[in-house]
Design brief:
Length: 489
């Protein structure tokens, strides 16, 4: 029986998972890559390192699965979104390190563009506010700041891609991106699913450097080993697909470096009036596109890494749960991790992180607990906004990502949301979604109904906190968030 591979290129590592027809992983290979911080608010990756590690984990996973390339029916790609690469068409050499989604260097560009029409200047067309998060301003920064880059781009010598495009180009030679990744550039029109000429003109981005926009599930090309690359989804849309949220109103939350809640809104985009993003959910071959509402939180799991790497309070990320359990509550403190500004629902690039409510009583256990609680509070803000936009209260939440193994966090999340939180048996939903998209393209799975049969719950956390305490804690969080506003002038 053939297998399906998925390359999951994330913010901190690249992984390859190989799945069988039941959607169960049979092999996993993973390699971390270097995080480059040239200055405050600046985050970069080496695209060549990422490409090399993607090839490496693919070969390693095939070996671990005790199969050969001919046993792999197709490869799906899923990726950290908005991270921007520009490279030479002739040589494949990047003109600069990749500018990562968390990077804030384009704040000036965004402010300048917002000067003519405000922060929501392009929201009607793209579903996105002007923010440093998205790829379009990053492309403009590279073309404006790398010598001769704009001239070379206009001559057709340079290519742009988010990480999905970069990997597919290196694997197959095809210069493509799917609708979900294109919707994160701030350059694609949600109605036409094509690059918007007006926005390209405003940002001075030559159309000829942009990839062709394709569906999330079709054959884009083949690797040198003869394997079809046939699935492409941004990581959060891949998790939505892997969680089988195929019906309007179904939602998932991924707890990773950041936190990302997506709700399927069907075949028509839903405009947000509460700080959420309108984005593409997925598009399967020639079928109609499916849209989603998204709430994006920049720093969640990355805050645990910060405790480990910058403060040395824990030796490994999983130690945070035991440290947080050493105390009964947060000791009166809140940790607002606005390291790269605040994303949904505030969209304030000028915010910066803060710990508030400090007293002599507070110890490292309280800080660890506040770190975990920050993830749950930020998710509550996104869910509240989603309920307002849709007019329907979410009755349960599917959770995935690395942090769902933290049972203290999952219980607190259910408590602060006042809805059940469910972890699936296969928690690798991001890679699974990419595998599903690739498998559908080559007939490995016949339809999405067959994918639903693969999903099953591992554990559900029920809310246990009384409503009065829930609202007191959440009001404290909202007060803490206001203390981070407008720190950067």
């Amino acid at each position: 029986m053939k297998l399906i591979a998925a390359i999951d290129q994330g913010t901190t590592s690249t992984r390859c998972l190989i799945f069988n027809q039941e959607g169960i992983p049979v092999a996993v290979a993973q390699k971390e890559h270097t995080q480059i911080y040239p200055g405050p608010g600046l985050v970069e990756h080496d695209p060549l390192e990422i490409s090399a590690k993607a090839h490496g984990v693919l070969a390693e996973a095939i070996s671990l699965a005790e199969c050969v390339p001919g046993d792999i029916a197709a490869i799906g790609i899923t990726n950290q979104r908005e991270t921007t690469v520009v490279w030479e068409k002739a040589t494949g050499r990047p003109i600069n390190n990749a500018i990562v989604w968390q990077d804030t260097r384009t704040a000036g560009i965004c402010a300048e563009l917002a000067g003519q029409g405000g922060q929501n200047r392009y929201r009607e067309k793209t579903g996105l506010p002007l923010a440093t998060y998205f790829s379009g301003p990053k492309i403009k920064w590279l073309l404006d700041n790398i010598p001769d880059a704009r001239k070379r781009a206009e001559k057709g010598e340079l290519l742009f891609g988010n990480i999905d495009t970069w990997l597919i180009w290196n694997l197959t030679g095809a210069h493509v991106t799917d609708v979900t990744n294109a919707s994160r550039t701030m350059l694609m029109n949600l109605a036409t699913l094509d690059w918007d000429e007006g926005i390209l003109c405003d940002m001075s981005v030559p159309r000829r450097m942009l990839p062709k926009i394709v569906s999330s599930s079709e054959v884009y090309g083949t690797t040198r080993e003869g394997i079809s690359v046939a699935g492409d989804l941004g990581d959060q849309q891949a998790a939505l697909f892997g969680q089988t949220c195929f019906s309007p109103g179904e939602a998932k939350n991924t707890y990773g470096t950041g936190c990302f809640m997506l709700m399927n809104t069907g075949e028509m985009p839903v405009k947000s009036n509460n700080g959420l993003l309108t984005t593409l959910g997925y598009k399967i071959g020639g079928q109609n596109p499916v849209y989603a509402l998204e709430g994006s939180v920049a720093i969640t799991g990355a805050l645990v890494q910060w405790l480990r790497d910058n403060l040395g309070l824990i030796r490994k990320a999983s130690d945070v749960e035991a440290l947080a359990q050493s105390v009964d509550d947060n000791g009166g403190i809140y940790f607002v991790p606005a390291f790269s500004g605040l994303y949904a629902p505030y969209w304030k690039d000028s915010a910066r992180g803060a710990i508030v409510g400090m007293t002599r009583y507070v110890n490292k256990g309280h800080i660890a607990r506040a770190v975990l609680e920050a993830t749950a509070y930020q998710t509550r803000e996104v869910l509240d906004a989603m309920n307002k936009d849709c007019g329907v209260a979410l009755c349960s939440l599917k959770a995935d990502g690395g942090m769902v193994q933290n049972e203290l966090l999952m219980q607190f999340q259910a408590d602060i949301l006042n809805v059940p939180v469910t972890r699936p048996k296969v928690s690798e939903t991001t890679a699974l979604g990419a595998a599903y998209a690739a498998g559908l393209a080559v007939g490995y799975w016949p339809d999405i109904k067959s994918l639903r049969r693969n999903w099953s719950a591992d554990r559900t956390w029920q809310p246990e906190m009384d409503s009065a305490r829930r609202e007191v804690l959440f009001r404290g969080w909202q007060k803490a968030v206001t203390r981070t506003f407008d720190w950067v002038e």
